[in-house]
Amino acid sequence: MGSVRIKAIAVGLAIAVIGGAAYGVVVSLLIYWLGGWASGRPMQELVALRGGPLLTALSLIGVAALNGVAGYVTARMSAPRHLAEPLIVGLVLVVGDVIGLIVKPGAGALWVSVLLLVLIVPTILVGALIGWGRAHN
To answer: What are the boundaries of each domain within the chain?
Structure first.
């Protein structure tokens, strides 16, 4: 096995974290657009939409897709079939999410947070497998 490629890890983390933040902004804008921001609805009503099933599903799908992209790019930048880099990206994200749950308990639905934690590493590994398949055929 070769050495761990820090650049691949940094890029994978950047995709997951910055992409997740950007996706959160898009979902928030979607809430205001779907909620009829211009219709004068109270802010509490619009914020309550964020916990609705449609936007929760969109959030889960978006985060899973971003993690897959992070795994894909990390794998493409790492040594052939080198599992360390995608796993490090996944584990750093898991640790960050666990810290977030401890620091801000009740910031969202607990089941969504747990589901996201469970999906982080598998979605990154699926992206990595696709990346390895495309890069090292």
So the answer is: 6-135
